[in-house]
Amino acid sequence: MFRTAFSKSRGAAWALGATAGSAVTGWIWTSQQETPAFCSNDNSSVLGMLQQVSQRLEHLEHLVGGKSIASQRSSTKDSPRIDIVLGAQWGDEGKGKLVDMLSSGGYDVCARVAGGSNAGHTIVVEGKKYKFHLLPSGVLNPNAVCVIGNGVVVHIPSFLNELDSLTAAGVDWKGRVLLSDRAHLVFDLHQEVDGMSDAGLGRHKLGTTKKGIGPAYASKINRTGLRVGDLQDDSWDNFERRFRNLVESHKQAFPSLEVDIDEQLAYYKAVAPRVQEMMVDTIQYTNQQYDQGKRILVEGANATMLDIDFGTYPFVTSSNPSVGSVLTGLGVSPRKLGGIYGTVKAYCTRVGEGPFPTELPVEKNSPGFHLGHVGAEYGTTTGRPRRVGWLDIPQMKYSATLNGFTSLNLTKVDVLTGLETVKLGVSYKYKGKYLDSMPANLKVLEDVEVEFEELPGWKEDISSCRTFEELPMNCQTYILRVQELIGVPIRWIGVGPNRADVIDRGVGWDLSESPSQS
Ligand code: IMP
Protein backbone atom coordinates (compact mmCIF):
# COMPACT_ATOMS: atom_id res chain seq x y z
CA MET A 1 0.00 0.00 0.00
CA PHE A 2 2.76 2.43 0.85
CA ARG A 3 4.47 1.70 -2.39
CA THR A 4 1.43 2.84 -4.34
CA ALA A 5 0.68 5.80 -2.13
CA PHE A 6 4.18 7.17 -2.00
CA SER A 7 5.80 6.05 -5.20
CA LYS A 8 5.36 9.67 -6.32
CA SER A 9 7.64 11.01 -3.68
CA ARG A 10 11.15 9.80 -4.10
CA GLY A 11 13.20 9.88 -0.93
CA ALA A 12 10.21 9.92 1.36
CA ALA A 13 8.71 6.86 -0.28
CA TRP A 14 11.77 4.77 0.22
CA ALA A 15 11.72 4.78 3.95
CA LEU A 16 8.03 4.34 4.57
CA GLY A 17 7.12 0.83 5.41
CA ALA A 18 10.60 0.15 6.70
CA THR A 19 11.89 -0.55 10.14
CA ALA A 20 15.40 0.37 11.25
CA GLY A 21 17.84 -2.33 10.40
CA SER A 22 15.25 -4.70 8.95
CA ALA A 23 13.57 -5.53 5.68
CA VAL A 24 9.83 -5.08 5.43
CA THR A 25 7.63 -5.78 2.40
CA GLY A 26 10.49 -5.77 -0.03
CA TRP A 27 12.47 -2.78 1.25
CA ILE A 28 15.73 -2.72 3.11
CA TRP A 29 16.29 0.18 5.42
CA THR A 30 19.87 1.31 5.88
CA SER A 31 19.75 3.78 8.69
CA GLN A 32 23.30 5.01 8.06
CA GLN A 33 22.44 6.94 4.95
CA GLU A 34 18.66 7.05 4.78
CA THR A 35 18.97 5.51 1.31
CA PRO A 36 17.08 2.36 0.59
CA ALA A 37 18.46 -0.69 -1.01
CA PHE A 38 15.94 -2.29 -3.29
CA CYS A 39 15.04 -5.90 -2.62
CA SER A 40 15.55 -8.17 -5.59
CA ASN A 41 12.27 -10.04 -5.18
CA ASP A 42 10.35 -6.99 -6.44
CA ASN A 43 12.51 -6.33 -9.53
CA SER A 44 10.29 -8.41 -11.74
CA SER A 45 7.20 -6.23 -11.25
CA VAL A 46 6.49 -3.08 -13.28
CA LEU A 47 6.34 -1.14 -10.03
CA GLY A 48 9.69 -2.56 -9.03
CA MET A 49 11.27 -1.44 -12.32
CA LEU A 50 9.77 2.04 -11.99
CA GLN A 51 11.14 2.31 -8.50
CA GLN A 52 14.58 1.29 -9.71
CA VAL A 53 14.47 3.98 -12.43
CA SER A 54 13.37 6.52 -9.85
CA GLN A 55 16.16 5.48 -7.52
CA ARG A 56 18.74 5.82 -10.27
CA LEU A 57 17.41 9.27 -11.18
CA GLU A 58 17.79 10.34 -7.60
CA HIS A 59 21.32 9.00 -7.58
CA LEU A 60 22.07 10.97 -10.77
CA GLU A 61 20.62 14.15 -9.28
CA HIS A 62 22.84 13.62 -6.31
CA LEU A 63 25.92 13.18 -8.47
CA VAL A 64 25.16 16.16 -10.70
CA GLY A 65 24.20 18.83 -8.26
CA GLY A 66 24.18 17.58 -4.72
CA LYS A 67 20.70 19.09 -4.37
CA SER A 68 17.52 17.28 -5.35
CA ILE A 69 15.15 18.68 -7.94
CA ALA A 70 12.58 19.04 -5.20
CA SER A 71 14.79 21.18 -3.02
CA GLN A 72 15.69 23.42 -5.96
CA ARG A 73 12.01 23.88 -6.67
CA SER A 74 11.19 24.78 -3.10
CA SER A 75 13.83 27.45 -3.01
CA THR A 76 12.38 29.31 -6.00
CA LYS A 77 11.48 32.54 -4.31
CA ASP A 78 8.70 33.75 -6.59
CA SER A 79 6.57 30.62 -6.66
CA PRO A 80 3.65 31.35 -4.36
CA ARG A 81 2.73 28.81 -1.70
CA ILE A 82 0.24 28.47 1.07
CA ASP A 83 1.62 26.04 3.64
CA ILE A 84 -0.34 25.00 6.70
CA VAL A 85 0.67 23.79 10.14
CA LEU A 86 -2.13 21.83 11.82
CA GLY A 87 -2.59 20.11 15.15
CA ALA A 88 -3.16 16.43 14.42
CA GLN A 89 -4.34 15.27 17.86
CA TRP A 90 -6.18 17.01 20.74
CA GLY A 91 -4.09 20.18 20.77
CA ASP A 92 -0.86 21.40 22.35
CA GLU A 93 1.25 19.32 19.98
CA GLY A 94 3.88 22.05 19.63
CA LYS A 95 2.72 23.74 16.43
CA GLY A 96 4.14 27.09 17.52
CA LYS A 97 7.74 25.92 17.38
CA LEU A 98 7.43 24.69 13.80
CA VAL A 99 5.63 27.87 12.76
CA ASP A 100 8.36 29.93 14.37
CA MET A 101 11.03 27.89 12.62
CA LEU A 102 9.32 28.05 9.24
CA SER A 103 8.39 31.72 9.42
CA SER A 104 11.95 32.77 10.12
CA GLY A 105 12.83 30.94 6.90
CA GLY A 106 11.10 33.19 4.42
CA TYR A 107 7.31 33.38 4.73
CA ASP A 108 5.91 36.77 3.80
CA VAL A 109 2.53 36.31 5.48
CA CYS A 110 1.54 34.32 8.59
CA ALA A 111 -2.17 33.77 9.20
CA ARG A 112 -4.66 32.50 11.76
CA VAL A 113 -7.87 31.16 10.26
CA ALA A 114 -10.05 29.71 13.04
CA GLY A 115 -10.67 29.69 16.79
CA GLY A 116 -9.81 32.54 19.09
CA SER A 117 -7.91 33.14 22.30
CA ASN A 118 -8.64 29.55 23.40
CA ALA A 119 -5.46 28.61 21.54
CA GLY A 120 -2.14 29.10 23.19
CA HIS A 121 1.49 28.49 22.57
CA THR A 122 4.71 29.63 24.09
CA ILE A 123 7.79 30.43 22.05
CA VAL A 124 11.20 30.89 23.66
CA VAL A 125 13.56 33.10 21.67
CA GLU A 126 16.98 33.92 23.06
CA GLY A 127 15.81 33.10 26.57
CA LYS A 128 12.70 35.33 26.27
CA LYS A 129 9.30 33.66 26.60
CA TYR A 130 6.43 34.83 24.37
CA LYS A 131 2.88 33.58 24.91
CA PHE A 132 0.47 33.73 22.00
CA HIS A 133 -3.28 33.24 22.04
CA LEU A 134 -4.72 35.17 19.11
CA LEU A 135 -1.76 36.43 17.14
CA PRO A 136 0.18 34.15 14.83
CA SER A 137 3.59 33.56 16.41
CA GLY A 138 5.04 34.53 13.01
CA VAL A 139 4.77 38.10 14.34
CA LEU A 140 8.24 37.52 15.81
CA ASN A 141 9.61 37.47 12.26
CA PRO A 142 10.11 41.18 11.48
CA ASN A 143 9.57 40.56 7.76
CA ALA A 144 6.22 38.80 8.05
CA VAL A 145 2.78 40.38 7.89
CA CYS A 146 0.29 38.70 10.24
CA VAL A 147 -3.27 38.14 9.15
CA ILE A 148 -6.17 37.31 11.47
CA GLY A 149 -8.59 35.78 8.98
CA ASN A 150 -12.37 36.01 8.77
CA GLY A 151 -12.79 32.59 10.43
CA VAL A 152 -11.25 33.74 13.73
CA VAL A 153 -13.36 35.07 16.62
CA VAL A 154 -11.66 38.06 18.25
CA HIS A 155 -11.96 39.29 21.82
CA ILE A 156 -10.71 42.83 21.25
CA PRO A 157 -9.49 43.47 24.85
CA SER A 158 -7.35 40.27 24.77
CA PHE A 159 -6.11 41.08 21.28
CA LEU A 160 -5.01 44.60 22.25
CA ASN A 161 -3.39 43.26 25.44
CA GLU A 162 -1.40 40.76 23.43
CA LEU A 163 -0.18 43.55 21.16
CA ASP A 164 0.71 45.73 24.17
CA SER A 165 2.77 42.90 25.68
CA LEU A 166 4.63 42.56 22.40
CA THR A 167 5.38 46.29 22.44
CA ALA A 168 6.59 45.97 26.03
CA ALA A 169 8.86 43.10 24.96
CA GLY A 170 10.36 45.30 22.24
CA VAL A 171 8.70 43.60 19.25
CA ASP A 172 7.89 46.09 16.53
CA TRP A 173 4.60 44.85 15.07
CA LYS A 174 3.10 48.17 13.89
CA GLY A 175 1.82 47.96 10.32
CA ARG A 176 2.34 44.17 10.30
CA VAL A 177 -0.89 43.00 11.94
CA LEU A 178 -4.04 42.90 9.81
CA LEU A 179 -7.47 42.03 11.13
CA SER A 180 -10.24 40.78 8.86
CA ASP A 181 -13.26 43.06 8.69
CA ARG A 182 -15.35 39.86 8.51
CA ALA A 183 -13.98 38.29 11.72
CA HIS A 184 -16.59 38.01 14.46
CA LEU A 185 -16.24 39.67 17.84
CA VAL A 186 -16.14 37.83 21.15
CA PHE A 187 -17.64 40.03 23.87
CA ASP A 188 -17.14 39.71 27.63
CA LEU A 189 -20.75 38.51 27.78
CA HIS A 190 -19.81 35.55 25.55
CA GLN A 191 -17.07 34.63 28.03
CA GLU A 192 -19.45 34.86 30.96
CA VAL A 193 -22.06 32.78 29.19
CA ASP A 194 -19.35 30.23 28.32
CA GLY A 195 -18.62 29.78 32.03
CA MET A 196 -22.29 29.65 32.98
CA SER A 197 -23.23 27.10 30.31
CA ASP A 198 -20.34 24.80 31.18
CA ALA A 199 -20.98 25.04 34.90
CA GLY A 200 -24.65 24.31 34.19
CA LEU A 201 -23.68 20.96 32.70
CA GLY A 202 -22.43 19.78 36.09
CA ARG A 203 -20.52 16.53 35.88
CA HIS A 204 -21.16 16.45 32.10
CA LYS A 205 -19.26 19.70 31.63
CA LEU A 206 -17.10 20.15 28.52
CA GLY A 207 -14.24 21.84 30.34
CA THR A 208 -14.01 24.77 27.92
CA THR A 209 -11.32 27.44 28.19
CA LYS A 210 -14.05 29.99 29.14
CA LYS A 211 -12.80 32.30 26.41
CA GLY A 212 -16.27 32.68 24.93
CA ILE A 213 -15.51 30.67 21.81
CA GLY A 214 -18.68 28.55 21.64
CA PRO A 215 -21.07 31.41 22.45
CA ALA A 216 -19.35 33.74 19.93
CA TYR A 217 -19.61 31.16 17.12
CA ALA A 218 -23.22 30.54 18.21
CA SER A 219 -23.96 34.26 17.72
CA LYS A 220 -22.27 34.06 14.30
CA ILE A 221 -24.39 31.09 13.24
CA ASN A 222 -27.54 32.65 14.76
CA ARG A 223 -26.78 35.75 12.66
CA THR A 224 -26.91 37.97 15.73
CA GLY A 225 -23.13 38.45 16.03
CA LEU A 226 -21.10 41.60 15.39
CA ARG A 227 -18.01 41.74 13.24
CA VAL A 228 -14.76 43.71 13.32
CA GLY A 229 -16.02 45.65 10.29
CA ASP A 230 -18.98 46.93 12.32
CA LEU A 231 -16.55 49.01 14.39
CA GLN A 232 -16.57 51.87 11.90
CA ASP A 233 -17.65 55.41 12.66
CA ASP A 234 -20.34 55.53 9.96
CA SER A 235 -21.99 52.32 11.17
CA TRP A 236 -21.81 53.05 14.90
CA ASP A 237 -25.62 53.29 15.24
CA ASN A 238 -25.86 49.84 13.76
CA PHE A 239 -23.18 48.51 16.16
CA GLU A 240 -25.01 49.97 19.14
CA ARG A 241 -28.41 48.59 18.09
CA ARG A 242 -27.10 45.12 17.35
CA PHE A 243 -25.06 45.02 20.58
CA ARG A 244 -28.14 45.93 22.66
CA ASN A 245 -30.10 43.15 20.89
CA LEU A 246 -27.28 40.69 21.51
CA VAL A 247 -27.27 41.48 25.23
CA GLU A 248 -31.06 41.22 25.36
CA SER A 249 -31.15 37.79 23.73
CA HIS A 250 -28.45 36.46 26.09
CA LYS A 251 -30.20 37.88 29.14
CA GLN A 252 -33.33 36.01 28.17
CA ALA A 253 -31.40 32.77 28.11
CA PHE A 254 -29.25 33.60 31.18
CA PRO A 255 -31.29 35.89 33.49
CA SER A 256 -28.40 36.21 35.98
CA LEU A 257 -26.13 37.69 33.31
CA GLU A 258 -25.12 41.24 34.10
CA VAL A 259 -23.82 43.52 31.35
CA ASP A 260 -23.05 47.19 31.75
CA ILE A 261 -24.13 48.14 28.24
CA ASP A 262 -23.02 51.78 28.43
CA GLU A 263 -19.60 50.85 29.77
CA GLN A 264 -19.14 48.26 27.00
CA LEU A 265 -20.26 50.65 24.27
CA ALA A 266 -17.93 53.35 25.60
CA TYR A 267 -15.02 50.85 25.57
CA TYR A 268 -15.65 49.81 21.96
CA LYS A 269 -16.07 53.43 20.84
CA ALA A 270 -12.75 54.28 22.48
CA VAL A 271 -10.76 51.41 20.95
CA ALA A 272 -12.42 51.56 17.50
CA PRO A 273 -9.72 53.86 16.01
CA ARG A 274 -6.97 51.37 17.07
CA VAL A 275 -8.92 48.50 15.53
CA GLN A 276 -9.67 50.44 12.35
CA GLU A 277 -5.92 50.92 11.75
CA MET A 278 -5.53 47.14 11.44
CA MET A 279 -8.85 46.33 9.75
CA VAL A 280 -8.63 45.20 6.09
CA ASP A 281 -10.35 42.94 3.61
CA THR A 282 -7.99 40.04 4.32
CA ILE A 283 -9.51 37.91 1.54
CA GLN A 284 -8.40 40.41 -1.07
CA TYR A 285 -5.09 41.02 0.68
CA THR A 286 -4.16 37.33 1.00
CA ASN A 287 -5.08 36.46 -2.58
CA GLN A 288 -3.21 39.48 -3.93
CA GLN A 289 -0.13 38.43 -1.97
CA TYR A 290 -0.40 34.94 -3.43
CA ASP A 291 -0.78 36.34 -6.95
CA GLN A 292 2.38 38.37 -6.40
CA GLY A 293 4.32 35.17 -5.65
CA LYS A 294 4.39 35.53 -1.88
CA ARG A 295 4.69 32.65 0.55
CA ILE A 296 1.92 32.32 3.10
CA LEU A 297 2.01 30.23 6.26
CA VAL A 298 -1.22 29.31 8.01
CA GLU A 299 -0.84 28.70 11.72
CA GLY A 300 -3.53 26.24 12.75
CA ALA A 301 -5.04 26.64 16.20
CA ASN A 302 -6.51 23.94 18.48
CA ALA A 303 -6.50 20.59 16.69
CA THR A 304 -8.24 18.06 14.47
CA MET A 305 -9.79 15.97 17.26
CA LEU A 306 -11.35 19.17 18.64
CA ASP A 307 -13.00 19.91 15.28
CA ILE A 308 -16.73 20.59 15.64
CA ASP A 309 -17.47 18.19 12.75
CA PHE A 310 -14.71 15.60 13.00
CA GLY A 311 -13.76 15.63 16.67
CA THR A 312 -15.14 13.87 19.70
CA TYR A 313 -18.39 15.90 19.73
CA PRO A 314 -19.56 17.47 22.02
CA PHE A 315 -16.12 17.49 23.69
CA VAL A 316 -14.74 19.72 20.97
CA THR A 317 -14.23 23.38 20.25
CA SER A 318 -16.72 25.31 18.12
CA SER A 319 -14.68 25.79 14.94
CA ASN A 320 -13.04 23.58 12.32
CA PRO A 321 -9.38 23.35 13.27
CA SER A 322 -8.70 20.91 10.42
CA VAL A 323 -7.67 21.76 6.87
CA GLY A 324 -11.12 23.00 5.76
CA SER A 325 -10.85 26.12 7.88
CA VAL A 326 -8.00 27.38 5.72
CA LEU A 327 -10.46 27.74 2.86
CA THR A 328 -13.39 29.13 4.84
CA GLY A 329 -11.38 31.13 7.37
CA LEU A 330 -9.01 32.84 4.96
CA GLY A 331 -10.92 32.86 1.69
CA VAL A 332 -8.46 30.99 -0.54
CA SER A 333 -9.01 28.26 -3.10
CA PRO A 334 -7.95 24.65 -2.39
CA ARG A 335 -5.89 24.84 -5.57
CA LYS A 336 -3.51 27.21 -3.81
CA LEU A 337 -2.62 24.91 -0.92
CA GLY A 338 0.93 23.53 -0.71
CA GLY A 339 2.41 21.75 2.29
CA ILE A 340 0.00 20.46 4.92
CA TYR A 341 2.10 19.78 7.98
CA GLY A 342 0.53 17.71 10.73
CA THR A 343 2.02 18.26 14.15
CA VAL A 344 1.87 15.20 16.37
CA LYS A 345 3.35 14.61 19.79
CA ALA A 346 5.35 11.40 20.21
CA TYR A 347 2.69 10.54 22.78
CA CYS A 348 -0.76 11.99 23.33
CA THR A 349 -2.31 14.66 25.57
CA ARG A 350 -5.74 16.13 26.05
CA VAL A 351 -7.02 19.07 28.12
CA GLY A 352 -10.61 19.06 29.26
CA GLU A 353 -13.16 16.28 29.17
CA GLY A 354 -13.98 13.65 26.56
CA PRO A 355 -12.89 10.17 25.49
CA PHE A 356 -9.18 9.43 25.26
CA PRO A 357 -8.64 5.78 24.28
CA THR A 358 -4.89 5.52 25.04
CA GLU A 359 -5.03 7.54 28.29
CA LEU A 360 -2.66 6.49 31.07
CA PRO A 361 -3.03 6.70 34.84
CA VAL A 362 -0.59 9.18 36.39
CA GLU A 363 0.41 7.61 39.69
CA LYS A 364 4.01 8.18 40.75
CA ASN A 365 6.74 6.40 38.78
CA SER A 366 4.29 5.20 36.13
CA PRO A 367 4.82 5.98 32.41
CA GLY A 368 1.85 8.40 32.64
CA PHE A 369 3.56 10.29 35.46
CA HIS A 370 6.78 10.38 33.42
CA LEU A 371 5.03 11.84 30.35
CA GLY A 372 3.15 14.53 32.31
CA HIS A 373 6.14 15.44 34.47
CA VAL A 374 9.00 15.34 31.93
CA GLY A 375 6.75 16.79 29.22
CA ALA A 376 5.60 19.64 31.57
CA GLU A 377 2.06 18.99 30.42
CA TYR A 378 0.08 21.98 31.68
CA GLY A 379 -2.27 24.06 29.47
CA THR A 380 -0.86 27.40 28.19
CA THR A 381 -4.28 29.03 28.26
CA THR A 382 -5.76 27.53 31.42
CA GLY A 383 -2.77 26.12 33.35
CA ARG A 384 -4.74 22.87 33.85
CA PRO A 385 -2.73 19.61 33.96
CA ARG A 386 -3.15 17.77 30.68
CA ARG A 387 -4.26 14.16 30.52
CA VAL A 388 -1.58 11.95 28.95
CA GLY A 389 -1.47 8.70 27.00
CA TRP A 390 0.44 6.67 24.43
CA LEU A 391 0.43 7.70 20.78
CA ASP A 392 -2.88 6.66 19.22
CA ILE A 393 -2.35 5.36 15.69
CA PRO A 394 -6.04 4.87 14.67
CA GLN A 395 -6.65 8.48 15.72
CA MET A 396 -3.62 9.65 13.71
CA LYS A 397 -4.69 7.72 10.62
CA TYR A 398 -8.10 9.39 10.86
CA SER A 399 -6.43 12.78 11.20
CA ALA A 400 -4.17 12.09 8.20
CA THR A 401 -7.16 11.04 6.10
CA LEU A 402 -9.09 14.20 6.97
CA ASN A 403 -6.23 16.64 6.45
CA GLY A 404 -4.15 15.02 3.71
CA PHE A 405 -0.89 15.73 5.52
CA THR A 406 2.09 16.04 3.21
CA SER A 407 4.47 15.50 6.11
CA LEU A 408 4.52 15.19 9.85
CA ASN A 409 6.26 17.11 12.59
CA LEU A 410 6.81 14.59 15.42
CA THR A 411 7.37 16.63 18.56
CA LYS A 412 8.70 16.00 22.07
CA VAL A 413 10.39 12.69 21.24
CA ASP A 414 12.90 13.57 23.99
CA VAL A 415 10.11 13.23 26.58
CA LEU A 416 10.11 9.46 25.94
CA THR A 417 13.80 9.23 26.85
CA GLY A 418 14.31 7.19 30.02
CA LEU A 419 11.27 4.96 29.64
CA GLU A 420 12.04 1.24 29.77
CA THR A 421 9.58 0.52 26.96
CA VAL A 422 7.37 2.71 24.79
CA LYS A 423 3.96 1.72 23.53
CA LEU A 424 1.89 2.56 20.46
CA GLY A 425 -1.88 2.13 20.39
CA VAL A 426 -2.22 0.37 17.04
CA SER A 427 -5.86 -0.70 16.74
CA TYR A 428 -9.28 -0.31 18.30
CA LYS A 429 -11.50 -3.29 19.08
CA TYR A 430 -15.15 -2.99 20.06
CA LYS A 431 -17.09 -5.99 21.31
CA GLY A 432 -14.33 -8.26 20.03
CA LYS A 433 -14.28 -6.79 16.48
CA TYR A 434 -11.60 -4.53 14.98
CA LEU A 435 -12.83 -1.06 14.00
CA ASP A 436 -11.63 0.30 10.69
CA SER A 437 -12.83 3.88 11.23
CA MET A 438 -13.14 6.42 14.03
CA PRO A 439 -16.45 5.81 15.79
CA ALA A 440 -18.77 8.84 15.91
CA ASN A 441 -20.55 7.47 18.95
CA LEU A 442 -18.69 8.52 22.08
CA LYS A 443 -19.92 5.57 24.09
CA VAL A 444 -18.28 3.27 21.55
CA LEU A 445 -15.07 5.33 21.63
CA GLU A 446 -15.04 5.29 25.42
CA ASP A 447 -15.44 1.51 25.45
CA VAL A 448 -12.96 0.57 22.73
CA GLU A 449 -10.25 -1.81 23.71
CA VAL A 450 -6.89 -0.57 22.42
CA GLU A 451 -4.28 -3.04 21.19
CA PHE A 452 -0.76 -1.86 21.90
CA GLU A 453 2.59 -2.58 20.33
CA GLU A 454 5.55 -2.40 22.69
CA LEU A 455 8.99 -1.21 21.64
CA PRO A 456 12.22 -0.94 23.61
CA GLY A 457 12.98 2.50 25.06
CA TRP A 458 16.27 4.41 25.11
CA LYS A 459 18.24 6.16 27.83
CA GLU A 460 20.56 8.44 25.84
CA ASP A 461 20.00 12.21 25.84
CA ILE A 462 18.87 13.08 22.31
CA SER A 463 18.63 16.87 22.65
CA SER A 464 21.85 17.55 20.75
CA CYS A 465 21.05 15.20 17.85
CA ARG A 466 20.64 17.12 14.60
CA THR A 467 20.41 14.23 12.14
CA PHE A 468 18.24 11.15 12.17
CA GLU A 469 21.32 8.91 12.21
CA GLU A 470 22.56 10.45 15.45
CA LEU A 471 19.49 9.23 17.33
CA PRO A 472 19.81 6.01 19.36
CA MET A 473 18.76 2.96 17.34
CA ASN A 474 15.69 2.29 19.54
CA CYS A 475 14.56 5.86 19.02
CA GLN A 476 15.01 5.54 15.24
CA THR A 477 13.01 2.33 15.32
CA TYR A 478 10.19 4.04 17.21
CA ILE A 479 10.04 6.93 14.73
CA LEU A 480 10.12 4.68 11.69
CA ARG A 481 7.40 2.47 13.13
CA VAL A 482 5.20 5.53 13.74
CA GLN A 483 5.83 6.68 10.19
CA GLU A 484 5.06 3.27 8.79
CA LEU A 485 1.82 2.93 10.74
CA ILE A 486 0.48 6.40 9.95
CA GLY A 487 1.67 6.29 6.35
CA VAL A 488 2.93 9.87 6.13
CA PRO A 489 6.61 10.86 6.01
CA ILE A 490 7.99 12.39 9.18
CA ARG A 491 10.08 15.39 8.20
CA TRP A 492 10.68 17.15 11.53
CA ILE A 493 11.60 15.49 14.83
CA GLY A 494 11.52 17.46 18.10
CA VAL A 495 14.39 16.49 20.38
CA GLY A 496 14.25 19.18 23.09
CA PRO A 497 12.45 22.30 24.28
CA ASN A 498 14.69 24.94 22.66
CA ARG A 499 14.12 26.58 19.32
CA ALA A 500 17.06 24.75 17.74
CA ASP A 501 16.26 21.31 19.16
CA VAL A 502 14.76 19.91 15.96
CA ILE A 503 15.93 17.46 13.33
CA ASP A 504 14.85 18.53 9.84
CA ARG A 505 15.21 15.64 7.44
CA GLY A 506 14.66 17.99 4.49
CA VAL A 507 12.18 18.52 1.67
CA GLY A 508 12.54 14.92 0.48
CA TRP A 509 10.30 14.06 3.42
CA ASP A 510 7.46 16.34 2.30
CA LEU A 511 5.04 15.03 -0.30
CA SER A 512 4.14 18.60 -1.36
CA GLU A 513 7.69 18.98 -2.63
CA SER A 514 7.36 15.94 -4.84
CA PRO A 515 7.91 16.69 -8.56
CA SER A 516 4.52 15.19 -9.40
CA GLN A 517 2.76 17.74 -7.20
CA SER A 518 3.98 20.79 -9.04
P1 IMP B 1 -13.33 25.91 23.95
O1 IMP B 1 -12.56 25.94 22.68
O2 IMP B 1 -12.84 26.91 24.94
O3 IMP B 1 -14.80 25.99 23.72
O4 IMP B 1 -13.06 24.50 24.66
C1 IMP B 1 -13.58 23.27 24.15
C2 IMP B 1 -12.60 22.13 24.39
O5 IMP B 1 -11.48 22.28 23.57
C3 IMP B 1 -12.06 22.06 25.83
O6 IMP B 1 -11.90 20.70 26.18
C4 IMP B 1 -10.71 22.73 25.73
O7 IMP B 1 -9.82 22.30 26.73
C5 IMP B 1 -10.27 22.28 24.35
N1 IMP B 1 -9.34 23.21 23.70
C6 IMP B 1 -9.64 24.34 23.05
N2 IMP B 1 -8.55 24.91 22.54
C7 IMP B 1 -7.52 24.10 22.84
C8 IMP B 1 -6.12 24.14 22.55
O8 IMP B 1 -5.58 25.03 21.89
N3 IMP B 1 -5.39 23.10 23.05
C9 IMP B 1 -5.95 22.09 23.75
N4 IMP B 1 -7.25 22.01 24.03
C10 IMP B 1 -8.04 23.02 23.59
Automatic annotation (TrEMBL):
Sequence intervals crossing the membrane: none
Any one GO molecular function term: magnesium ion binding
Residue sites binding substrate per the record: 380-386
Source organism (scientific name): Fistulifera solaris (Oleaginous diatom)
The protein's role, per its UniProt record: Plays an important role in the de novo pathway and in the salvage pathway of purine nucleotide biosynthesis. Catalyzes the first commited step in the biosynthesis of AMP from IMP. Plays an important role in the de novo pathway of purine nucleotide biosynthesis.
PANTHER family: ADENYLOSUCCINATE SYNTHETASE (PTHR11846:SF0)
InterPro entries noted in UniProt: Adenylosuccin_syn_GTP-bd, Adenylosuccin_syn_Lys_AS, Adenylosuccinate_synth_dom1, Adenylosuccinate_synth_dom2, Adenylosuccinate_synth_dom3, Adenylosuccinate_synthetase, P-loop_NTPase
Protein name: Adenylosuccinate synthetase
Keywords: Cytoplasm, GTP-binding, Ligase, Magnesium, Metal-binding, Nucleotide-binding, Purine biosynthesis
UniProt-annotated binding residues for IMP: 92-95, 118-121, 209, 223, 302, 317, 384
Annotated catalysed reactions: IMP + L-aspartate + GTP = N(6)-(1,2-dicarboxyethyl)-AMP + GDP + phosphate + 2 H(+)
Location in the cell: Cytoplasm
Binding site for Mg(2+): 92, 120
Keyword GTP-binding on entry: yes
Statement: the UniProt record of this protein carries the keyword Metal-binding: yes
Family as reported in the entry's similarity comment: Belongs to the adenylosuccinate synthetase family.
